[in-house]
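Figure 2 data, in text form.
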Amino acid sequence: MHIPPLPRSSRTLLRLALLSFVLLQLLLIYLNVQLAQALEADAAVINLAGRQRMLTQQIGKTMVLLTQPSLPTEVQVSADQELREAAQLFERTLQALMRGGQTRTGQQGLIQLEPIDDVVTQQLLLRATGLWLQHKQELESLQASSPNAVVLLLPPFLASNRELLSLMNALTTQIEVMSRERAQKIRWQLLGMFLLEIINGVLIVYLLYRRYQHNKQHKEMLQQVLDEIAVGVCLLNTEKVIVTANQALLRLLQRPSEQILGAPLTQLFNTTIQPWIYTLVGTPTTLRLEPSWRTLSIQHRSYELLTLRDVTVEYALQEQMTQLAYLDPLTQIPNRRLWEHQNRQVLARATRNQQRCLVAVIDIDCFKMINDQHGHLTGDHVLKEIAQRLSEHCRADDMVARIGGDEFAALFTLVTEGDYLFAKQQIVQKLEAVFHAPIHYDGNWLRISASLGFAMFPEEGQNAVSLLQVADQQMYQNKALRRTLGLQLAANGAGPSLMDQ
């Protein structure tokens, strides 16, 4: 079974569109990283330009302070040191902004700057460098002059300082403008990439829609062919989930397609008794179908084609009797009839192989009290939970059945001849473990106990009936013993009896 592929041109275009989508995503990531790095670098440069303004003001104020007469020595030394550090930091930062290099940050760390390539900013930096050299000479002259000469040299120095401050203000403004322009340029690039990505996404959606329509048409053609087949047909994936089904199958199962498609096969069919016959669960009338399987490969995926032929007319009576005779309707485990039937086969095989078998009878204690106190729905849940636990604790070759209202039976084959007593002890422990954990239902936690009885084949019985009688008798003896022990404990003040509990 094969669905014709799309034309080669459409498939190639779809691959190119998907590749373009990936490349655009990578380019968008790259541009975002570039924008983040540019904003971070520009923020650092703007901060340094702002610091240059503060350093210019600091140099002017400190120089005015040093020209004051009768200045204390410690103040003069501190101001002189502050002036030298401010001048050195100003000059180093100015060179780093102009030619690139390292300068100090506010946290006494170092920052690496790249040369600024903006023409207007470079012109401002050149003017600031020339003015700083002149300002530096005036500063050195003031520091070396006598008090009388300071009076004459200070006004030109302050005028030069104001001009330098004005240049630093202009430099800061220009760097901010340059940063905004560069960020805006990257944002426009991002917008262009985003628009291209939208166009590419629309193209991908269109091509995928065409692919969907193509597959839908061929699926409808296939469905029409399947619906013309008289027998029931369904397609299963590797998880045994129904992918598609024809009208004949829907009529056979008497269910709408919504309940069939997407449902696991095990949800619709119960294969406990005979694997080659499927009995529909939940239909008013028992339906008997004979399946056949075939493995298919569709679009490089493995599927199973299941055809179901309705043989209800031939086997209706036999199927109805089998359903009623061998399965317990509540717990969905074998009932007493099937258990006795299987017992005969297992015991016959054990006789031929000289093996021992162990029959166990399990009777739930105080089950009527559970129904009376918590309701029959709770009692039903307890029975189903116990049946499930017993089935989980048994091996594949063992058999568990519900043989009465609150009574279960199990059959175990003891393969090894020499250690059958040890094997029996292990089985007893497994059965007791079933009742260790409480059962939760409808907000109640119920601690369930049970009385057990055992019979060994062939020592204690030669057939299923006699073995069940021996095990049943032993179970009632154990139940009576436990009841007596509980009453004695209650009479001696040791607490309530087991039955009361």
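Caption note: DSSP finds 13 helices and 14 strands in the chain.
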